[in-house]
Amino acid sequence: MKRRWSTQILCMLVLLALGGMTAAAAAPTATVQVSDPSITPADVGATFTVTVTFNQTMSNTVSPTVTFDPLVSGTLTGASGAWDTDVNENDQYTVSYTVACACDVAANVDVQVSGAQNPGTEVMVSATLADAFDVERDSPAEVGGPAAIASTVECQADAVAPTL
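The structure assignment produced for this chain is given below.
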């Protein structure tokens, strides 16, 4: 019995000395930024982006999931995401949305990011940018102006259910 234990200990020491035993890789972390802290009727038709920057190279086969709390699906449409390889390969992911209208009046919208993986399949630590942006029906400079009126009409039309 002594011989068996000493052989196992010797093997572990050899592996350790050769670098064969390493610590587990750390899960990826991320920071989140948005392109505009305040969406107003003047932004209709513009592009709104969420940029996620990771602390390590990520697998470009697993895109992160980006969600908003509260939901703003009437305001931000046409999500399209892509990995950026300009600086460091696959360490930044950008999701672009079209501002359809300022329909979802909301203050302090949080952006939540989850699900991305690095090439070693470690799943990222979920990231939240709290109070990232607001959606305002009328900006102070546009109250009663043509953009505010057009946006209000467009948003009211969106809220009407179709008749069958």
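Interim note for the steering committee: Confidence is low (pLDDT under 50) at residues 139-164. The longest strand covers residues 76-84.
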